[in-house]
Design a protein that fits this description.
- The chain has helices spanning 11-23, 26-38, 54-65, 82-92, 104-114, 128-136, 152-163, 178-201, 217-228, 240-248, 256-262, 278-281, 302-308, 339-342, 349-369, 382-396, 405-411; strands spanning 45-50, 69-74, 96-97, 121-124, 146-149, 171-173, 209-213, 232-236, 252-253, 265-268, 288-292, 309-316, 319-324, 329-333, 377-379.
- The chain is α/β, with parallel strands linked by helices.
- The chain folds into 2 domains: 8-180 and 347-395, Rossmann fold, CATH 3.40.50.1480; 189-342, Rossmann fold (3-Layer(aba) Sandwich).
- The longest helix is centred in the middle third of the chain and has 24 residues, at 178-201.
- The structure holds adenine (ADE).
- Adenine (ADE) binds next to helix 3 and helix 8.
């Protein structure tokens, strides 16, 4: 079996950590049990380009239980958990191509390796499989019946491909399911980003000025958690509606030009390029800590910082110091890559439970329905989304009310007023 991982000897540690994560993934577990009985993915070749974490391992085991032949590569050069990659290879016989800290060439070589079995389904986190196939491996399109996309950035790229008429197969936007973005993006990113910042720096959040750039679901999560730890949270936004929401949620909102002068921590979660750039580094306080939790490492203009710096050195794991000519020092976490996966372990398993339940059920949906799907980006079917919410509540032991017959009738009528 082909694979490329750091060290197979890490497999035992990985196996135990996967078992620990899977304990908090009851929805995925119940899907896995059904998949093992019904084999809805039997013989389906699936390439998964995901962050190689304990939670992803639980997803891969679920897909395998359903009968899929899965090959895995990393969706970010710095997010791989090497012990998990080892365990998937050694204990689950899954071809994995992922090494934490791999360079750009290796990253793309791994993407090609994950495509070597001519996948029928692609599972992306950031759309790198889809874009590689469309740009360089068009011969694979003949076998592909559909794909799924995990993250906001990937959905944006894929919708742009669909709008330009270049997307060649259907994609289900897992990110857009309510049971995904309302939980994973908000509570998952909220906790794991603050976790990454703390693990990397061991700095006190309380009393700090914490600048969150972008008030989408991820930014909201981080703002909420930083505020919960006692930070004075400042939001920067380009969208007036979101900025207004941030104001009314009780945060200070200002331009980055102003925020740059006062922030102790800066965290970008916008999905856009060069949100922090030279003009901002010029104004930052000595000791400012800068990181990104958006999908790609484009949000911080690191090249500009490198050009401005008179010196640089790694000072702790995942913390690099840049010395400027006026004596100020700026600290960049995790090379400007997503800090929650570079310096911590990504979102906790109990939110990934819902995200990966969506991935599993959407793979099944594609197998069953691909003949009637076009070259578009589709929403997750509402019944899948609702079923996942129902299963999650049941697993948490939470019961909710049902509509009475009278209430159902009322909701479908228009006659009755005050
Ligand atoms: N994205 C964010 N957190 C993750 C995790 N724990 N596993 C896989 N993908 C993730």
């Amino acid at each position: 079996m082909e694979f490329d991982i750091r060290d197979a000897a890490l497999a035992e540690k990985g196996k135990l950590r996967i078992e620990w994560a899977a304990r908090s993934m009851p929805v995925l577990r119940s899907i896995g049990e059904r998949f093992a009985r019904e084999k809805p993915l039997v013989g389906v070749r699936l390439a998964a380009c995901l962050h190689v974490t304990t939670e992803t391992a639980a997803l891969v085991q679920t897909l395998k239980a359903g009968g899929a032949e899965v090959r895995v590569c990393a969706s970010n050069p710095l997010s791989t958990q090497d012990d998990v990659a080892a365990s998937l290879v050694v204990h689950d016989a899954v071809p994995v191509f992922a090494v934490k800290g791999e360079d750009k060439d290796t990253y793309y070589r791994h993407i090609h390796a994950a495509l070597a079995h001519r996948p029928q389904i692609t599972m992306d986190d950031g759309a790198d499989l889809v874009s590689t196939i469309h740009a360089e491996r068009k011969e694979l399109l003949a076998d592909i019946i559909g794909g799924t996309e995990e993250t906001t950035t990937g959905v944006i790229r894929l919708k742009s491909m669909a709008a330009k008429g270049v997307l060649k197969y259907p994609i289900v936007a897992v990110n857009d399911a309510d049971t995904k973005h309302l939980f994973d993006n908000r509570y998952g990113t909220g906790q794991s980003t603050v976790d990454g910042i703390i693990r990397a720096t061991n700095r006190l959040i309380a009393g700090s000025s914490f600048v969150v750039s972008g008030y989408g679901w991820c930014g909201r999560g981080v703002a909420m958690r930083a505020a919960g730890m006692g930070a004075k949270v400042i939001i920067t936004e380009v969208d007036p509606l979101r900025a207004l929401e941030a104001v009314m949620d009780g945060y200070q909102v200002m331009s980055m030009a102003e925020a740059a002068k006062v922030g102790d921590f800066f965290c970008t979660l916008t999905g856009d390029i060069h949100v922090l750039r030279k003009e901002h580094f010029q104004k930052m306080k000595d000791g400012a800590i800068v990181c990104n939790s958006g999908h790609f490492n484009v949000e911080i203009d690191l090249d500009a910082l490198v050009r401005m710096a008179v010196g640089r050195r790694p000072i702790r794991d995942f913390v690099e110091e840049f010395q400027l000519s006026d004596g100020r020092r700026i600290y960049v976490l995790g090379e400007g890559r997503l800090v929650n996966l570079a310096a911590a372990e990504g979102h906790p398993s109990s939110v990934m439970d819902m995200s990966f339940a969506n991935q599993s059920l959407c793979s099944e949906f594609i197998v069953k329905n691909h003949r009637s799907l076009g070259r578009q980006v589709y929403r997750v079917p509402v019944d899948i989304d609702k079923e996942i919410a129902r299963l999650k509540l049941a697993a948490m032991g939470v019961r909710i009310d049902r509509l009475t017959a009278e209430q159902k009738k009322y909701l479908s009528s228009w006659e009755m007023g005050t």
